[in-house]
Design a protein that fits this description.
The complex is a heterotrimer of chains A (665), B (117) and C (217). By secondary structure, chain A is mainly alpha-helical. Chain A has 20 helices and no strands. With 217 residues, chain C is mostly helical. Classes of the chains: A mainly alpha (665), B mainly alpha (117), C mainly alpha (217).
Chain lengths: 665, 117, 217
Amino acid sequence: MATAAVSPSYAHAGESYQSGIWSWLTTVDHKRIGALYMYTALAWFGVGGIEALIMRLQLKGPNGHVVSAEVFNQLFTMHGTTMIFLVVMPLSAAFFNFLIPLQIGARDVAFPRLNAFSYWVYLFGSLFMNSSWLVGMAPNGGWFGYAPLTTLAYSQGLNIDFWMLGLQILGVSSLAAAFNFITTIINMRAPGMNLMRMPMFTWMAFVVQFLLVLAFPVITIALVFLQFDRFFGTNFYTMTAGADPLLWQHLFWVFGHPEVYILILPAFGLVSEILPTFSRKPIFGYPVMVYSGILIAFLGFGVWAHHMFAVGMGPIADSVFAVTTMLIAIPTGVKIFNWIFTMWGGNLRFTVAMKYAISLVALFTIGGISGVMHASPPADLQQTDTYFIVAHFHYVLVAGSMMGLSGGIYYYFPKITGRMLSEKIGNWQFWLTFIGVNLTFMPMHWSGLYGMPRRVYTYDAGQGWEIFNQMSTYGAFIQALAGLIGLYNIWHSRRKGEIAGNDPWGAPSLEWSIPSPPPEYNFETIPTVTSRYPLWDIKSPELTSSVPHSRHGDERNDVSLGGKRVGGFHDHMSAGTPEGGVNPSAHQASTKVSLKTAEQLGIPMPYPTIKPLFVALFMTTMFASLLLIHKDKLQLAVGGVIASALAMTFFLYAWLTSPLEPHHH
Amino acid sequence: MADHDSFTHTNPDIDVHAMGEVHEHPTWKQYKWVAVILTLITVVEVWIYYTPFKDSPLFAPVLLIMSAVKFAIVVLFYMHLKYDHKLFKALFTGPLIIAMSTLLALLFLFGKFSGKH
Amino acid sequence: MSSAVASHAHPPTSTGLDHRKIAIWAFIGSECMLFASLISTYLIYKGRSVVGPFPHEACLPPICVTALKPILNIPVTSFSTFVLLMSSLAMVLALAAVENRGKPGYEGILGSSKFWLLTTAILGTTFLGCQAYEFTSFVHEGLTIRTNLFGSSFFTLTGFHGAHVTAGVLWLLTLLSIDIKRGLQPKDALLVDISALYWHFVDVVWIAIFTLVYLIK
């Protein structure tokens, strides 16, 4: 095994893995599905970024005419829709998939095939929605798609059809995944992993699944009304029939506000993993962090109408929604302070992941404060529909969610691939991102307060907006450069990065107790957990003395992890993780562990299967067939829907009646 | 679907204690009575619809109470939530409360409680 | 699917409960929001239609060209409501039959899960038949999904419920075919249990719809 020291540890694990395209199409392994989510989301991040760059080119100076007004509408609609539904949510889903089972000590999710289905629905839904570019009819009604503007009377093309059908498809993906993760977290925790010992990321993921489960049905119904209006001539959004122009807005924001917590809470969770590791301190106020997350989510259902202060809901509604909105600042502020106190007095290591995490704490606060500003209806009336709002939500979404997720990528890439991302390249990426984000979005506060409206495709000179728009455009290109550097880093480090070993960062949670990348069965023996920081209990017990344990003294060192008692564990695991050292070469020692396959260990693994992919495919074609209605091919549309539905049902039954995994005797 | 037997944990660290699956489902006798009560309430509901009481301001509240009772009976006995794990109660009542609050808030926002429809 | 052998390799679940039952309850929670959105919209649009037919009031000229009766058919719907309630009774008996297979007191009809599954499915289909009758008679009386806000919101709300009943009937028939093929045993009770939870939930949604849409003016 001596020669193994130079080859990556996953060379051993790889033997049990099938490789090749077919294995990816049929995989039901949560780690591979997580990787699929991540790479797909990064690809759409590129597309959404290009859309943003074209808009910024157009707005660089007054009276810009890079694209027409119509194309500009399509760009901002697809930029928002892409970044929210095809980038941030799936990137979060990548981490849900990869991390939840590892963090709770499980071998997979509760329903592995449903998990594959969720991914394929996401992939096909995103391809469907973006195929609208090919026919030159990309959605153009804004990511919020306000009806009645999106009804047939005002939007005749297929643009809105692509949007509403695409969102409907993507909603299925999110809902299926949410039921899966709820069940996984409730039911697949390792012995001793009680709720108040779950890592913060898993906690925030848990909260987000409930937001998904409760928010998505509402947009589903709002979209069904829109589909019925557009396809069948119903009157939900027809003002002449007595409909209310606010119906869509209310339904959309009942979904839309929980949605913003769906976008940010996973990033909060990642940051809550990164900060303790690189501060070498348990997170400050763990229970309060958990309760704050729950409270943010719960209050998130009672604030939606603050998106609608300008429509005139009256003083009572305005006051109530202003107060509930401001209340959310309390649990959010608690989180910010707890992160700061986590770092306070810690042994800080400024890795790239840590830098991203810290900049989330700093920059999200800016977005949070501007959020409290327009929680006040009188202030909001000045700010609404201006670039001030654009500045606000980009600070929480880019400087918040994307910074957190980027930090998560730097932190977990070693676990996912077995190799470290280059810190040197990463530093370039981080600092360019940091400068780019602030240069882009900070000036928007000013252009907004000087009165520049959102969503204008061009503007006249002499209104005092030029300098701010120029800054924003330069900032956007700096961000793009940073993004390219990041992609290069991933491409480069996947092949040439340093070997990571099990626990390159000296982290406390279970996922770091197993090889990188983990074998398909994750844990050879399901671990037993006695505190929130099982690895620190073993490797740095002095760090966790203040954390509650179920056993005390030497007894807790009896805990088995990775099937080995603590002594054996020490031999190869902590073969030198010098304090503060990120990449000790001694980690190659970990390659001495030769991994057994699931078969050798007698662990039943789910069969790979193509059926979820086909169910997802035919569900997508079922929705896509509806497009033909507006091409006056009603019979073809009906035929397409029926044929797709039958094919989908066939594969669904085939899926449900085939066994998940081999029976062992 | 995943094969997981539902046998009980003995580990005291598990927070949600496995009560086993408490399969004290109601008996046939109870089911029968539940059905009789549901039918009776439905009969009363329809009956008062055809009496002058339907113009009373109490008509709507009385109907809402009766349907809430029916709703609760079905959920507690037929869906055996009364006898089942507390986790299921949480998974159902939490979303139900949010759903009903959202419904009431929407009706308020659209002026449905202001007297003039 | 479920086997006692596999349990050696799989760790027990954290709660001792089956995954599928947790998932179906989470799904039902989600459905609460779905139907809350539909019912909200129906109630918000109640009384806002500018042309008839209306649910509870006659539509007289000049609003309607010819006088139109109130359109809701309470007797038929009361019958279908009763049918759906009885289907829930049949459903719990189907579950009891599977759970108690072979136990004393569950010989004969009470122990025949096939009979009760079939009865539930037939009652569900009867409910759907009533709905089909109701829908067609409304169309004949001049109310389609396009006519007015009432038509749009009524057909969408009750149609969504009907689609759920249809899915439930298909689910029941699938169980019935498994029962006929190999006989559902007490270890399969969970399969029946989760379909029953779904079925009863669809029933309670109808309890709400019956009151809010049909009885209250």
